[in-house]
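Section 5.1 Outputs to date
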Amino acid sequence: MSGDRSIVDAANICRFEIATDACPQVLARLLGYFAQQDQLISMLHQRMVGDGLRVTLETAWLDPDRARIIAARIGNLLAVRAVDVRSVAPCDA
């Protein structure tokens, strides 16, 4: 089937790495940007680092232009210190 997403195209997996202040609402706000684009998160990892958070998440089937737009919006959040987005292979998780 042409619409079958069970076969993942490695070029379409985007990893977002985000450094934020330790704010209880930041994770929900980050996920909201993906929900607005009807994107499912395939991997999410959050950990405390010093006085902040480090969030890593991956989503598939997101074109690079849309990924850059989401990254720019994330970067505009007050609590966000840095955001990086890049394409990764599925086995690179």
